[in-house]
């Protein structure tokens, strides 16, 4: 049964090294911290009457466990799998268990302007949308897209 933003949060998952956002390669990823991104996502979800469940892990298995949790308790998933985008069939398989749950993949940098190995994402095979190269603002776009996919209407300007 589809969940609404009124009944379930959007899970926002962040992969490896994103805990260092604002410190690691600011010329690529900018100066905003992961806490700044969480605030941005919470504000965008609130504009649609929703909330976010915001998490980060450097461990693939933990991300898989959280995806399993999301399939039961969340309205949708926004995921920045970071380097796992290019390597993790396990994350793809976990996302494939989320029948009917909107999934939007987000990348801070434009992965298509970077090294060749970054051009392929396993996660994209399941994602309902992919946002790349918009900086941390891409997270706000991703939250808004999930809200739209679950039928939420904007309640705030």
TrEMBL record:
Substrate binds at residues 80, 86, 93, 108-109, 118. Its EC number is 4.2.1.10. It is an enzyme of class 4 (lyase). SUPFAM superfamilies: Type II 3-dehydroquinate dehydratase. The record marks 24 as: Transition state stabilizer. Pathway: Metabolic intermediate biosynthesis; chorismate biosynthesis; chorismate from D-erythrose 4-phosphate and phosphoenolpyruvate: step 3/7. Signal peptide: none annotated. It catalyses: 3-dehydroquinate = 3-dehydroshikimate + H2O. The keyword Magnesium does not apply. Keywords: Amino-acid biosynthesis, Aromatic amino acid biosynthesis, Lyase. It holds the Pfam family DHquinase_II. The keyword Nucleus does not apply. InterPro entries: DHquinase_II, DHquinase_II_CS, DHquinase_II_sf. The active site is at residues 29, 107. NCBIfam families: aroQ, PRK05395.1-2, PRK05395.1-3, PRK05395.1-4. Belongs to the type-II 3-dehydroquinase family. Homododecamer. Catalyzes a trans-dehydration via an enolate intermediate. This is 3-dehydroquinate dehydratase.
């Amino acid at each position: 049964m589809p969940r609404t933003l009124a009944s379930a949060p959007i899970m926002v998952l962040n992969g490896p090294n994103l805990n260092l956002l604002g410190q690691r390669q600011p010329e690529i990823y900018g100066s905003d911290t992961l806490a700044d991104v969480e605030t941005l996502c919470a504000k965008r979800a609130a504009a649609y009457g929703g909330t976010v469940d915001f998490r980060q892990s450097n461990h693939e298995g933990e991300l898989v466990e959280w995806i399993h949790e999301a399939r039961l308790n969340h309205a949708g998933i926004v995921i920045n799998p970071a380097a796992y985008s290019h390597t993790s069939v396990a994350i793809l398989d976990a996302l494939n268990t989320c029948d009917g749950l909107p999934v939007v993949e987000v990348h801070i940098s434009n992965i298509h302007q970077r090294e060749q190995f970054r051009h392929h994402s396993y996660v994209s095979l399941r994602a309902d949308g992919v946002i790349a190269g918009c900086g941390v603002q891409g997270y706000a776009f991703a939250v808004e897209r999930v809200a739209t996919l679950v039928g939420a209407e904007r309640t705030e300007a």
